[in-house]
């Protein structure tokens, strides 16, 4: 029901209008002056105001101006009902915000027509207002979501800035929403991995794939896995996750820790260039594979490109933004211009390249997804090794293996896994493995099984030796190997004792072994890795003393 | 423990990657990895990035490979060694016989 406010200082006029309007089915409020009217407007939702001009306390002009100011969100029609006829008064009515006039005396039918017309406009205005509110709500929602996504990605994109000597890259601030992604990380071995990706589409949808892709990338790099494994895994994750029409063109590169070689997986991005000191392209790496997220796991192509590089080389990676930038004459920037810019000055920066691209594009619509990466092929700094402090507890470990267990297990790795659980020993696990493997296999092969290493000197001796070993192992009965490991926190040392039920061997045999020979290297190696290796006189028990100093984990 | 072999996109480099431990359990598959090499291949890379452990039998297998491939390929490279394994290779003077990256 329409609510109409009648404002007139004459009770008779108010009464007259009220009767008239109530007959039409409207709800009517009345006020004898502007001030009362304003109060009523605050208390009730009024749809139309019928306003007299000349009133005490507050006249129609003043009232109209205030109403229009206070109720500006939705159209609130003010129809002046007046006996004034001069043009100046009309003008003033309009100037203060009046929407219509009605001259006294007026015909009822005209009043009704005007009320209907203005209420229709008010309806439209109300709808527009509601839609605007909705729109505003959604806009705020989108903005908030963008902020959240940006926040997540800023946190997800770790260490982009950690390699300033090696990397100069440009991604527009909104790159994520254009589907461009640049990931960088260093492996435990020191090599540097970069991934430049370009997801199909724009906006949140494009950015969504970046999150799982980056997780896979960082996790696998932290384990030092190969570029082809990383590409295959991201392909499989994106394939499972993204809708069919979405995928990610990408280049993944690993620069070795020496900076002397690169391995690259190239799927769907524009050519990657290797440029020399003066910026000339000395090698073009063309895309080899389909973008990530398309092929099934078993169809996926893992082949990499391996290239030796000099320390003056730079690798140039870009998404299609640069070459597809258009000039005001609808001309593409293109590969030719891109190469020319790269060679225009030695050690050009991404900023300088983009300046040239933007200059070319001047006047035409700006591209905002100009992603460009320049990677300098320099040696990497060795990654910091976090070493866990050694445990203060004196652990002992003892294991007796009977012939059944000797036959059916390969216990060395399992023992290493157990020992490595002692705080601080994990850093030494490769050496612990070597020591145990040499001692155990020596005990088994030569002690228990009585094999002769000389076989290894024959053609294909290795294979024959291990075949004999298998046979001997299958026939083994009544044998025993005891492994004893003692961790001494005071001495920072590990003591290994491996003892077998075999006949032992002479010390002369042990002394004959030399690193220069193709076999028998084991005990010599043992002597180098451990601080002390002692056999008992019977030759069936070896004691090994291994010093747990930090230097054992260093590569120098 | 596993062994995978892959050829580079241009077919010139064979990469043998060993995961986990590199010991006598791999003697057959390692031997097979470089048997019947394609003529295009001029470089063999033993990628130890995911090799956590090795012992003297691995060294023996590497030397066997070198003997077998000398004259067939230009370079044999042992790459991406973890520090402790690199040290084992250095102790064994393998840096004189192989290109260790």
TrEMBL record, chain B:
It comes from the Bacteria. Pfam families: STAS (PF01740). Coiled coil: none annotated. Residues 3-101 form the STAS domain. Gene3D superfamilies: STAS domain (3.30.750.24). PROSITE patterns: STAS. Belongs to the anti-sigma-factor antagonist family. PANTHER family: ANTI-SIGMA FACTOR ANTAGONIST TM_1081-RELATED-RELATED, STAS DOMAIN-CONTAINING PROTEIN. NCBIfam families: ant_ant_sig. This is Anti-sigma factor antagonist. It comes from Pseudoalteromonas gelatinilytica.
């Amino acid at each position: 029901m329409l609510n109409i406010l009648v404002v007139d200082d004459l009770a008779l006029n108010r009464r007259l209008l009220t009767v008239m309007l109530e007959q039409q089915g409207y709800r009517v409020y009345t006020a004898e002056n502007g001030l009362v009217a304003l109060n009523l407007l605050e208390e009730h939702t009024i749809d139309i105001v019928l306003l007299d001009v000349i009133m005490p306390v507050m006249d129609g002009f003043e009232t109209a101006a205030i109403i229009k100011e206070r109720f500006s969100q939705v159209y609130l029609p003010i129809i002046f009902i007046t006996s004034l006829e001069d043009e100046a008064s009309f003008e003033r009515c309009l100037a203060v915000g009046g929407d219509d006039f009605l001259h006294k005396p007026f015909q009822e039918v005209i009043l009704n027509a005007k009320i209907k017309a203005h209420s229709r406009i008010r309806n439209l205005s109300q709808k527009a207002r509601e839609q605007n509110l909705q729109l505003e709500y959604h806009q705020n929602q989108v903005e908030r979501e963008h902020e959240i996504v940006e926040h997540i990605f800023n946190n997800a994109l770790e260490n982009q800035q950690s390699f300033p000597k090696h990397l100069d890259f440009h991604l527009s601030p909104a790159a994520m929403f254009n589907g461009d992604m640049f990931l960088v990380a260093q492996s435990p071995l020191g090599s540097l991995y970069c991934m430049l990706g370009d997801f199909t589409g724009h906006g949140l949808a494009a950015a969504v794939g970046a999150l799982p892709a980056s997780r896979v990338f960082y996790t696998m790099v932290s384990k030092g896995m190969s570029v082809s494994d990383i590409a295959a895994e991201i392909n499989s994750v994106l394939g499972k996750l993204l809708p069919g029409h979405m995928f990610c063109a990408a280049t993944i590169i690993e620069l070795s820790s020496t900076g002397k070689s690169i391995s690259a997986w190239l799927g769907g991005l524009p050519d990657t260039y290797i440029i020399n000191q003066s910026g000339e392209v000395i090698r073009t790496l063309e895309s080899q594979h389909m973008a990530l997220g398309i092929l099934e796991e078993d169809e996926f192509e893992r082949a990499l490109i391996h290239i030796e590089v000099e320390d003056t080389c730079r690798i140039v990676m870009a998404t299609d933004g640069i070459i597809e930038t258009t000039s005001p004459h609808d001309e593409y920037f293109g590969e030719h211009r891109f190469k020319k810019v790269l060679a225009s000055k030695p050690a050009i920066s991404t900023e300088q390249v983009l300046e040239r691209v933007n200059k070319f594009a001047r006047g035409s619509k700006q591209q905002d997804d100009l992603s460009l990466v320049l990677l300098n092929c320099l040696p990497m700094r060795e990654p910091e090794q976090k070493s866990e402090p050694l445990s203060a507890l004196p652990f002992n470990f003892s294991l007796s293996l009977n012939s059944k267990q000797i036959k059916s297990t390969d216990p060395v790795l399992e023992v290493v896994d157990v020992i490595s659980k002692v705080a601080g020993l994990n850093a030494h696990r490769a050496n612990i493995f070597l020591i145990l493997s040499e001692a155990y296999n020596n005990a088994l092969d030569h002690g228990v099984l009585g094999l002769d290493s000389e076989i290894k000197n024959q053609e294909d001796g290795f294979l024959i030796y291990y075949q004999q070993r298998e046979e001997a192992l299958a026939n083994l009965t009544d044998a025993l190997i005891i492994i004893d490991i003692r961790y001494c926190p005071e001495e920072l040392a590990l003591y290994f004792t491996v003892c077998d039920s075999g006949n032992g061997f002479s010390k002369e045999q042990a002394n004959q072994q030399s690193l220069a020979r193709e076999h028998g290297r084991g005990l010599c190696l043992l002597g180098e890795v451990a601080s002390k290796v002692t056999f008992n006189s019977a030759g069936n028990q070896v004691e090994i003393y291994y010093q747990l100093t930090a230097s054992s984990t260093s590569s120098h | 423990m596993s062994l995978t072999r892959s050829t580079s996109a241009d077919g010139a480099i064979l990469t043998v990657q060993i995961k986990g431990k590199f010991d006598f359990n791999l003697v057959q598959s390692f031997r097979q990895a470089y048997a019947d090499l394609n003529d295009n291949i001029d470089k063999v890379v033993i990628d130890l990035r995911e090799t956590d452990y090795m012992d003297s039998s691995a060294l023996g297998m590497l030397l066997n490979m070198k003997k077998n491939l000398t004259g067939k390929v230009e370079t044999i490279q042992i790459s991406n060694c973890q520090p402790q394994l690199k040290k084992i290779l250095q102790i064994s003077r393998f840096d004189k016989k192989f290109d260790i990256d």
